[in-house]
């Protein structure tokens, strides 16, 4: 199973060529996102609607929100379960991981709990997490 992180999903949605090629090579039933990615995508879209400074920008932001919502409904969303919560607690105890953001630790925790391959450009941070399978489809 492949879990796309927020940045990778955003690039895929924008039509990034390498990511699109890779997505064509894998079974669509083997691609999912975590609930954290869903939250991060929607938070960004909601913020854009609320911060729009004029009508045209507001309409564009709302259209992007709708397109993103459709995309998210088409993907399997993996929730936080007990196994992911245990992984999160374990990772938070590792002082070497203090500089990794909470959202990324949560995504990594879910990926570890499900033994999934995390697809991300953020290899610098995610490589620090022992046992995490990681691929970068953007480069």
Overview of this structure, please?
The longest helix is centred in the middle third of the chain and has 20 residues, at 55-74. It is globular, with a radius of gyration of 16 Å. It contains seven helices and five strands; from the N terminus they run E-H-H-E-H-H-E-H-H-E-H-E. Helix 3 packs antiparallel against helix 4 (55-74), helix 3 runs antiparallel to helix 6 (102-113) and helix 5 crosses helix 6. It has helices spanning 6-13, 17-25, 35-51, 55-74, 82-92, 102-113, 123-126; strands at residues 2-4, 31-34, 76-78, 117-119, 133-135. The two termini are 20 Å apart. It has a single domain, classed as 5'-nuclease (Rossmann fold), CATH 3.40.50.1010. It has a five-stranded parallel sheet, sandwiched between helices. Helix 7 (123-126) links the parallel strand 4 (117-119) and strand 5 (133-135). By secondary structure, it is of the alpha/beta class.
